[in-house]
Amino acid sequence: MPKIIKKIRQSTVVKIRLILSLILLAALSSLILARLVPSGRIFYNRDFSRSWQFFGGQGFIGQFSPAERIDFKTSDYVKLIADPVYFSVFTPRFFTRARLIITYQDYLASSTPIVEAGVLMDKIVWQYQMKPVVNKILDNLNWPTLTEGGLTLYERQKPVADLAYFIQRAGERSDLALYNYSLLRPYYLDNYSPAKSTRIMAAGLRGPYQFYTYLDGEDFNLTFWFQDLNQNYDLKGDGVTVLVSDYKGQNILTRRVRDDGIIADTGQLSAQSVLAFVIKDLPRGVYKVEVKANDDIVTRKIITSQTKLTFINKLWLVDETVAAFDLYTNVNNLKATAFGPGGEQILAYNREPLSVDAPYQQFYKRVDFAGPDHLYLINLKPRNLIVENNGLFAFNQAAFINPDFKKVDSNWEADDSINYILSAYQSPTVLGPDKIAVLDFDLSNAYRENHKYSLMISIPGLYANNQARQLAGLAPAYLEIKEIRLELEGKSLGDKLKELWRENIKPKLGLGVKK
Amino acid sequence: MSKTKDISQPSLSVIILREIFYFSSLTLLLFIILEIIFPYIVLAYFNLNYLVALVIISGLIKLGLKQASSGAN
């Protein structure tokens, strides 16, 4: 009898092992498939009402940060009470396109009409590819519209019959504004006279920056003086790349300056290195210069014979050689941050004080709109101070140039000079109290580190609005995020294998080569 | 001759526990190796602490039952 029992027990063990092995095999296969994504398509979902996940997994869509801009406690979901907020998405492989679907409830004030989301494209210049979640300015605009192929033209006056023809001739218009749409146009200045000599046009700029300049019948010459502060440890070194492109965005020149060889955070100032170039016989028009550098690099001066030099969106000013100076901007809002002790000050913006009284905090001011072509004066001490807005900056009025179309953004002020607005914007879908926004991104050149894409949600003006509400004893305005879904698309396993065959194996075998 | 119980053969529950212990240990090892090769591949879906707990608990119960059966011997 014991032998029979032993045989029965052995067959039971075999059965148990077989079942458990199949379970293990199924689990491993699922994980490998989830890693490879053979179909090229996958989606990830996060319901913010649930703080737990099945089987305790960490999920793919990270939590929002920084914590002081988020309210987790007073709602089942997540409330965004300041901006911008960031979150990351882990992906097991590269993808080329993403569709971000945000389900939310809107408890924002009328002074924050725009919500946008974006994916990080360049970590050095901190550039995001932004797309609209909602633009209440356009939603509430009672102008007739013409929609074709994902584009909407809002028409204040004369209706347009052919949108494609309108876009073809749009470069000539001065009464057109844009939202979420890029329109390239040649921009020429009447009565322009080139300078006969070079001079210092800007000094004391830290980190990356971009500027427009203009040429007409002159050489394009720029000389940069760079210095490495070596305050941060960077294994990749602190090199600098300067890119020049024309109004179509086509690259004309790329120059690089190598790191001084010190990658550790020694604080040792490097000798100044010079990058200079001259380009002759360029057609007249606007050119964009992009300086890609990390925060350890200071541009001590920019010397050029070009008379127009207008900086785009942000400047980090670190010029100790002057007590104070004037800066000009074309928009009626300003954010200022003292990056470290010594930067605190009371600066004057359009002759109104803006107190920057603590380091590492952003201070915001909005002044009365003074017209579409007005330049607002900023008087400040350039001691480790970051100034930024959605407009342009120049170190003197004569150097100012604005080749861009007006944008219907959070600082939009309606004026009679605009008769048409062209946008690639779709209002969110309303589902009861919820709204659902669908945003499409091109991930081909998106920045990805440690298998993660970085995303952000921006609600311009929310922080300042809530500061004012707090002073008035009101509850903060917020955007309540209920769910985020990310649908990713990339090459399938079949496509990859075909590519491998076509590009690597077939040439080596000499197949498909015509003799 | 009197019939005697064959006390050298483990009971079915001990066998199942033993197999669970082996299975969970092997699974934990494989998941850790997979996690080293492809970071986050397991952790995104599954908290390995649950598996560690299963290994420990099944191991302890198996040990306890083994000691109890040795004591009975």
Let me know the number of strands of chain B.
0
The best one-word shape of chain A is: globular
| Backbone shape of chain B | elongated
What about the largest sheet of chain B? none
Q: Biggest sheet of chain A, open or closed, and with what strands and sense?
A: 12 strands, antiparallel
Series of secondary-structure elements of chain B, N-terminal to C-terminal: HH
State the secondary-structure class of chain A.
mainly beta
Compute the number of strand runs of chain A: 33
β-strand amount of chain A: 35-45%
Determine the N-to-C terminus distance of chain A: 80 Å
pLDDT < 50 runs, ≥5 residues of chain B: 1-7
Distance between the termini of chain B: 21 Å
**Which two chains form the greatest contact, residue counts included?**
A-B, 26 and 25 residues
Quaternary organisation of the protein chains: heterodimer
Question: Can you give the helix content of chain B as a percent range?
Answer: 55-70%
Q: Give the fraction of residues assigned to helices of chain A.
A: 10-25%
Which helices and strands appear, and what pairs or packs with what?
The complex is a heterodimer of chains A (515) and B (73).
Chain A: H1 2-36, E1 41-47, E2 70-71, E3 78-80, E4 85-90, E5 97-107, E6 114-122, E7 127-135, H2 136-139, E8 145-148, E9 151-155, H3 163-168, E10 176-179, E11 199-206, E12 209-215, E13 220-228, E14 240-245, E15 251-257, E16 273-279, E17 285-292, E18 297-304, E19 309-318, E20 325-329, E21 333-338, E22 345-349, E23 352-356, E24 362-366, E25 376-380, E26 383-394, E27 406-407, E28 420-423, E29 429-431, E30 434-442, E31 448-449, E32 452-458, H4 462-471, E33 478-489, H5 493-509
Parallel strand pairs in A: 10-27, 10-28
Antiparallel strand pairs in A: 1-33, 2-3, 3-33, 4-32, 5-30, 5-33, 6-7, 6-32, 8-9, 9-28, 11-18, 12-17, 12-19, 13-16, 13-18, 14-15, 14-17, 19-26, 20-25, 20-26, 21-24, 21-26, 22-23, 22-25, 29-30, 31-32
Chain B: H1 12-37, H2 48-72
